Amino acid sequence: MEAFSRLTAVALPLMFDNIDTDIIIPSREMKTVGKTGLADGLFAGWRYVAVGSREKSPDFLMNRAPYADAKILIAGQNVGCGSSREHAVWALREYGFRAVIAPSFNPIFRGNCIRNGIVPVQLAAEEARTLGDAALREEAEPVTVDLDSMTVEMAGAGPFAFALEDDSRLMLRNGWDAIDLTLQHRDRIAAWREADRARRPWIYLETGR
Amino acid sequence: MDTLFDILWSEHLIADIGDGIGLIAIDRVMLHERTGGVALKSLAAAGRTVMAPRQAFAVMDHIVDTLPGRSDRTLMPTGTAFITETRAAARAAGIALFDLGDERQGICHVISPEQAIVLPGATLVCPDSHTGTQGAFGALAWGIGSSEAEHALATGTLRVRKPATMRVTVTGRLADGVGAKDLALHIIALVGSDGAQGHAVEFAGEGVAALDIEQRQTLCNMATEMSAFCAIIAPDEQVFAALEGRPFAPHGAAWDAAVAQWRGLASHPDARFDREVTVDAAEVAPMISWGTSPQQAVPITGAVPSAGEGAAANHRRALDYMAIEEGAALIGLPIDAAFIGSCTNSRLSDLRRAAAVVKGRKVAPGVRAICVPGSGAVKRAAEAEGIAATLVEAGFEWREPGCSMCFFAGGESFGLRERVVSTTNRNFESRQGPETRTHIGSPELVAASAIAGRIVDPRAKGEA
């Protein structure tokens, strides 16, 4: 996972609540059993004129300069709700997004962001709205997300502080892999399982099927 | 003074990683071909193995066709790869697989209790957002992403940010003709689509205890649509009876020992929850969604509401998408299709209630009506009981088990901008087809509307 310290980039404001993962990537755009080849399907329902088409809809902000180069998404409440599909995050990442700013995140989507090097920046609703409005108005003005100072700002808006639990911040900051980190606890996990086996033997399904 | 969630969290806490993150032992991992195959493949590509293959299970449900005579070939373009690659990866990993042609196959959350994969007091995860459904059995069950599934498979654990707790207490009992789906939509409309965000939700109270085990699953299933971390109901004798003798349940002395433990799984009477919501069951009516989020739902006799404060843009967008106006009645809206199925409402009692509504009647001309049982076991039972015949005589298609048209994956779907009544959990934009206008409701409501050819109150007998 690519480490993240500080990013200054164009932000795409899609200021709707409940942008679900079906919108971020429709199921029909998940074409292979893998994590790549998904960027073209990002926001496909809004981005193209019809299902299956690749003709860009002029109405969709991401199809216009400078938003086509956005690396930061600003959204409304409950972003990433719906299906657990990590493809939504893989598609965002492959397109180039490294941060999502919103007043609230669906928990699975948030976890998927952290596992894939995308910083979930949770702000107060007014702060997110201020940034979103500014990004719409001052379209060429970039937004900065800083994982060291834990702030986000742009010319005329912010800085706004945001929080992340240490574990997630360290993984994002250093590009660490969660499985590697957890396997450092290997012995402790094995000991826990051994003790638990005596307490709840039925969990381990060791007597055949 | 612990809540049930706190008890299960503590029992599974292997290490405190700090700052509210726990390393939590995972007792069961379920996978399906849509998001689980990629986890298995990615795990193998990283040179890792499944730490506890006996505790992991894979099933085909999302991509497989539900048409009779189905095979690995699917109507969904590129769908075959999801089936064959998941099968190969599951076999290579040595985990149980409920494959096409296996009589146990079905929707993951429906077959898990049928097989007793889920058990009270267990932690269970699946890269599927509706995994909280299984909390109806007193398990700590929650949905994750594919990377987290890979983590759970590799380590037998997950790093979890501890959620706050929320109790939804339902006082009194639901009226006749009102079910768990209505209760769920009522609660979601009350608290909002992110109303339980960051919270583990326990459903409690007389109105919940009075629900049968299938209705409890419907209720827990829908907690996902208020962004809950998980949903849980304290297990009772009904839960134990539903699991006893099932293939992966403990048996003999182990069963007795397990039940003795499980009887203690309940929130302390004085437990404090971070948030409490109380719902009066008597106030719950049959519900139907009007918009593009499950929170946009009203009693069937109601009308499309006006925008709440600060929500004008979202409201307008939903109205335009659904081609519906503020103040309009839901009753009477003409429909193109009706769908009964999904992990929300595809169990035997769901189909039984739908069949009771349509018995001796016909689906309205021009309406496409489809019923997809949740599992092979549900299908066989429904056929034996005459439910299938009743539905087919009324004009419903009767399908093979799977997720089917709950979502549009590029293959089979409802038509452009068609209006569909559906027992599923999501009325999102284009969820069931290109620009499909989905209204979600109970099996009774969907069945009655299919007969009428328009949205009706399922309590109004003889409507059609």
From TrEMBL, chain B:
Enzyme Commission number(s) from the entry: 4.2.1.33
InterPro entries: Acnase/IPM_dHydase_lsu_aba_1/3, Acoase/IPM_deHydtase_lsu_aba, Aconitase_4Fe-4S_BS, Aconitase_4Fe-4S_dom, IPM_dehydratase_rel_enz
GO molecular function: 3-isopropylmalate dehydratase activity; 4 iron, 4 sulfur cluster binding; metal ion binding
Domain of life: Bacteria
Catalysed reactions, as listed in the record: (2R,3S)-3-isopropylmalate = (2S)-2-isopropylmalate
Required cofactor(s): [4Fe-4S] cluster
Annotated ranges, domain Aconitase/3-isopropylmalate dehydratase large subunit alpha/beta/alpha: 8-453
GO process annotations (BP): L-leucine biosynthetic process
One Pfam family, short name: Aconitase
Record has Iron-sulfur as a keyword: yes
Sections of the chain in a coiled coil: none
Region forming the signal peptide: none
Recorded metabolic or biological pathway in which this protein acts: Amino-acid biosynthesis; L-leucine biosynthesis; L-leucine from 3-methyl-2-oxobutanoate: step 2/4
Keywords in alphabetical order: 4Fe-4S, Amino-acid biosynthesis, Branched-chain amino acid biosynthesis, Iron, Iron-sulfur, Leucine biosynthesis, Lyase, Metal-binding
Function: Catalyzes the isomerization between 2-isopropylmalate and 3-isopropylmalate, via the formation of 2-isopropylmaleate.
NCBIfam families noted in UniProt: PRK05478.1, PRK12466.1
Self-association state and partner proteins as the record states: Heterodimer of LeuC and LeuD.
Protein name from the UniProt record: 3-isopropylmalate dehydratase
Organism, scientific name: Sphingopyxis panaciterrulae
